[in-house]
Structures are given as C-alpha cells and as structure tokens.
Amino acid sequence: MGGLPHALRDGDQFAARVNGRRPAVFLDYDGTLTPIVDRPQDAVISETMRNAVHRLAQRTTVCVVTGRDRSVVAEWLGIDGLVVAGSHGFDIAGNISGRAAGGEGGETIQHHAVAGFEELLATITEQLRNQLASAPGATVEPKRFSVAVHYRLVDPAHRPLVTATVEDLLAEYPDQLKLTPGKMVYEIQPKVDWNKGQAVLYLRHALGVDGPEYVSLYVGDDITDEDAFRALKGPVNGIGVVVADLNDPEVAGRPTAADFLLESIGEVERFLDMLA
After folding, report:
1. What is the 3 state secondary structure string of 58-79?
2. Residues 6+ apart with CB under 8 A from 15
3. pLDDT at 171
4. Which one of 108, 132, 159, 212 has the fewest beta carbons within 10 angstroms of its own beta carbon?
C-alpha cells in the first residue's frame, strides 16, 4: 500500500484521474468515517465528520456501504438524502434527492439482495451466544441479514474457541451460510453471490450516476472493501481510495486493488471537505 499515490498530497494525480467528471461517492463506515473501537456500539460518528459527509451530500451523490446494520448507521449519521447499504450491501434503503435521481422531486430507493433467511439467522445467533458464553469479551451482534461475532476484547487464549465455534457453525450449514472476515470480526451471511462491490454497481445504476460524466469514488479500509475497489476497475473507470495506517506492518503489507491512499480518519475528513 505504501507505493500508492496519496489522495491529498498527490492531488494532481487524483485530479487527472477524475478528469473533470462529477464524483459519486461511496463510503465505508468503520475505519473510514469512524475509528475502529473495542465495542461496536461505541462507533458513533463525530460531529465534524458528520458535517463533512453532510456538506458533500448537499453537493453530490453520497452513499454509505457498511457491514453494520443499516438502520443503526442511518440513525447515527442522521443525514437526509443519504442512501445506506447495510450488512455489506445486503440491505439498501434511503430517501434520495432529485439531484441524485436526476429529476426534480425526491424518491425512495430500496433493495434487498436476500430474503427468507431470517429464521436461520435467529437460530444461529442463539447458538453463537450459548457457545461463546465461555469466551469472555466475545460479542454476538445480530443484524437484519447477517450475524457478526466480534472478538477484539477476547483474551488470545480464548480466540481459538471463537474461531472453532464459527467454523463448526459454517460446517453445519454449508449450503446456506458463508463467512466474511473483517478486522477482529467474523461476519456470517447468507450464501448468495452478493458483496459490497455488487452493491456499489447496483447503486450506480439505481441512482443514475453510471454515465460517462460521473466518476465513482469508493473509500474504505477493510478486506471487505476490496470487492468494491475491484468493481470500479475496467470499464467502470472509477477510483478506489484505501484508508491504511502505514505504521502497521500487517496493514501496510496487505495487497489492495485501490488506486489511492489516505492514512487516517482525519485525512478522510479533509478529503471529503476537499471534494465538497
């Protein structure tokens, strides 16, 4: 990642890639708009970052694509006219302005990539809670279309139990569930062909920002955001911006499909202000 041009410091390169096109901006949440925190319920966006997102959303199309539950992030953001894709793009909804839709009035966009898994997700949520009771610090977070197992606060001695529990559960439902790993979290999802990248491609079309006069920008930090970076390659001709702390060898050495780099949450805020 250290070899990537910087989205702020190498502004001439970034401007050349934009090439006069109007940006449509897609943003991850955790690790991008907010720092990674020990407890998932503490990842509340700061006022200054919320203001930066709000200012940009008043000027162009902005969507948040997050692994979190859509309703939670939408409430934390509290920004009218913002589309939020939750559960890694499985749950998309929001009120979009006439500007984003290409018309005069507002309209609602809603898309669910999967349905019919509610009972199974409730069952495995209960299984996980029971089986991980002996792993202090493990948090099971039920969402509308997935279940997340957070283990950041689990003592290293108990982390193999968390991994084994998740692996056994996936083996029990091999045709119905899949695993999406993240930063100290296991995300268990319905086994369907859908991810953040496909959600971004769907949103580009649904919001009318897939024409040659637009450039799609995706800003994210996690492995799951790589699907979105890859989706913007080729004929889409978009731009991926990875948020990475180059002082962390594990992060700095990770391969990425992104085109530009930002090194902190603070730089993300400055980047959004710059775009606005």
Report:
1. CCCCEEEECCCCHHHHHHHHCC
2. none
3. 94
4. 212
pLDDT tens digits along 108-150 = 566 665 667 888 889 999 999 999 998 999 999 988 788 989 9
Q: Which domains does the chain have, with CATH numbers?
A: 11-113+194-275 (3.40.50.1000), 118-190 (3.30.70.1020)
The per-residue pLDDT for range 77-106, each reduced to its tens digit, is: 988 878 898 887 888 877 654 334 333 334
Put the strands of the sheet holding 185-190 in their side by side order. Answer: 139-142, 147-150, 185-190, 177-182
Closest CA relative to residue 68, chosen from 152, 162, 141, 170: 141
- In 113-221, DSSP assigns E strands to 139-142, 147-150, 177-182, 185-190, 214-220
**Helix pair 47-57, 265-275: axis angle to 10 deg:** 30
Catalytic choice (28, 30, 91, 227): 28
The Cα-based distances of 17 to 22, 57, 100, 159 in angstroms read 12, 21, 22, 43
Active site residue 273: no
Of 204, 199, 218, whose CA–CA distance to 257 is shortest? 218
Radius of gyration, CA atoms only, the chain? 19
Compute the distance between CA of residue 240 and CA of residue 221 in angstroms, rounded to an integer: 10
Backbone angles phi, psi at 187, to 5 degrees: -105, 120
* Tokens coding 113: 């990539």
